[in-house]
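Dear colleagues,

As part of the handover before I leave the project, I'm documenting each prediction I ran so the next person doesn't have to rerun anything. This entry is a single chain, and its sequence is reproduced below.
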Amino acid sequence: MNDPAASPLEGPVSTSTPVSPQRRGSLGSIGLVLSAGISVQFGGALAASLMPRAGALGVVTLRLVAAALVLLVVCRPRLRGHGRADWGTVIVFGLTMAGMNGLFYQAIDRIPLGPAVALEVLGPLALSVLASRRALNAVWAVLALAGVVLLGGGGFGGLDVVGVLYALGAGAMWAAYIVFSARTGRRFPQADGLALAMVVAAVVILPMGIVESGAKLTDPTTVALGSAVGVLSSVLPYTLELIALRRLPASTFAVLMSLEPAIAATAGFLILDQALATSQALAIALIIAASMGAVRTQTGRRRRSARSARTARSAEGAERAKTGEAENATDAAPAPARTG
């Protein structure tokens, strides 16, 4: 960004203008978001490898309990001063978090990580398309649908149908998570609402994990690995994203989040040896393109609305200034010279 105080008379501007601190900050924030995505998906791959030891719900339990404990220690949320509506919002937020994690881990216990994340991201994509109400979003919806059909081989013959349904359910919970995350953020300072919602999610999922896994949850190795999943999949990415969003536009953040199916496919290949067929890789690419297109469409609409509002305000201000100058000119006009 050029220095606004620089004068055009100071000579030609060098073509090798140094990168501004704001530009470097944006690039650093993008790196934080990508690091968060890598952390989440590699944490998911570690969770998938841990499932034979503790079961899907057992892994979810270890993840949410570990994340809740860490966030409680770090955030130390206040329990007083909140109304009934505040607690209702944070409880629903915690329930959606428990549902999103529980359904997703059931999905990756049955289908590869890359396709599972690609199906899950359809929830936020549908939310974006419905919220925007633009005709162009129908194109992104068709593109995403083509990706889903291709991913299922025309009828999900290559994927476990139950796993597919779990992934779609996780996507619906992800869309609800986005809505109630925003509402919780407006009602609770800093990350207090997130910490309290994580406790709700852990309390809800704990009985299910005990029923499914029982004594396996007390094994030291399983607890250690489950805690690592909690740090990789919850604590670390939430922290990185919180820092990044202070300097990064939400639209850029959403586009970067659209890349998660590709990151998940890479993590599944490197850790779980889950190779994708050409059709599955193409399907994931279509879903990523649809998600990024929907985000860019919605962002463009907001920018045009903001630009129109600024233009209207500028025109109104110019008109007021012109009127004020005319009035000042009338008031300050010199008296006629005396002739006699």
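The CA atoms of residues 132 and 298 lie 6 Å apart. The two ends are 63 Å apart (CA to CA).

All the best with the project,
I.
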